[in-house]
Design goal:
The chain is α/β, with parallel strands linked by helices and about 260 residues long. The chain has eight helices and nine strands. An eight-stranded mixed barrel has the order 1-2-4-5-6-7-8-9, surrounded by four helices. Strand 1, helix 3 (about 75-80) and strand 2 form a beta-alpha-beta unit. The longest helix has 19 residues, at about 165-185. The protein is globular, with a radius of gyration of 17 Å.
């Protein structure tokens, strides 16, 4: 049986790093994965959008949603992007209308790709949103081309920062989502978040880093402190736009390690 035990063994070898109104259509909200974090936390020490990514031995990648429309995957590949995350769902009612073009198109040019879910914890339980996600593109297969499903936990684009929930309630919601995804796919989801939001809204009563790889957003020249409960990061979203379509990411390891995570 393939479980996250093998993934933890792989990513543990990576470099350590020092309520709401009714949902709006995605196009009417100013968020993709990360843009709410840029809005709330700002950016410091960023390079210009025209610069290539500061790879420094890392693997460059990207993430997209319907905001990017039909992505020119061949161009992104030729510029050096080797992996991507594609938004699949939000809450229990939104599905990315560009998902097929983005998810299949990235695969067709050779990228390792995965799907992510934008959480709305005040709208429905973690299990309900996890099932909606897996049923609409959030699955996984050990084909060497599919990254773990990912959960986008960040600032509420429709209301109160922590969705009107206590840390204990939010922790329970994340665990329920994570456990449901694992039961459906045999993979614990990657967690996308920022250190500031996570420490404020989730806290450290559960050490999610024991099972869930971390995809951390910080728009700066360095990763900085990690969210409580995580000892290392797997992906760093270092810029909200730039060289590739969508947000700019770096995998914290070699391409061989990236392939192993997608196949384990």
């Amino acid at each position: 049986m393939r479980t996250l035990i093998s993934v933890v063994a792989i990513v543990a070898g990576l470099t350590p790093a020092p309520a709401s109104a009714a949902p709006l259509p995605e196009g009417s909200a100013d968020h993709t994965a990360g843009s709410q974090i840029l809005k709330h936390e700002g950016a410091g020490g960023l390079r210009t959008a025209e610069d290539s990514p500061p790879t420094a031995g890392k693997v460059p990648g990207m993430d997209v949603s319907s905001h990017q429309g039909d992505v020119d995957w061949r161009s992104a590949w030729d510029k050096g992007a080797r992996f991507t995350y594609v938004k699949a769902t939000e809450g229990t009612g939104y599905r990315n209308p560009k998902f097929t073009q983005q998810y299949d198109g990235s695969h067709d040019v050779g990228m390792i790709r995965g799907a992510y879910h934008f959480a709305l914890p005040d709208r429905a339980g973690g299990a309900a949103q996890a099932n909606f996600f897996v049923d609409n593109g959030g699955g996984w297969s050990p084909d060497g081309k599919t990254l773990p499903p990912a959960l986008d936990m960040e600032y509420n684009p429709y209301g109160e920062t922590c969705f009107g929930m206590s840390q204990a309630a939010m922790t329970g919601w994340v665990k329920e989502f994570s456990d449901t995804v694992f039961a459906r796919t045999r993979r614990y989801p990657m967690i996308y978040t920022s250190t500031s939001w996570w420490n404020r809204c989730v806290g450290g009563s559960v050490k999610f880093g024991d099972d869930n790889p971390l995809w951390v957003a910080r728009y700066s020249s360095e990763v900085g402190p990690l969210p409580v409960g995580f000892d290392f990061h797997t992906i760093w979203q270092w810029q909200a736009d730039g060289y590739f379509p969508g947000d700019q990411n770096l995998f914290n390891g070699t391409f061989d390690q990236l392939q192993r995570i997608a196949a384990s």
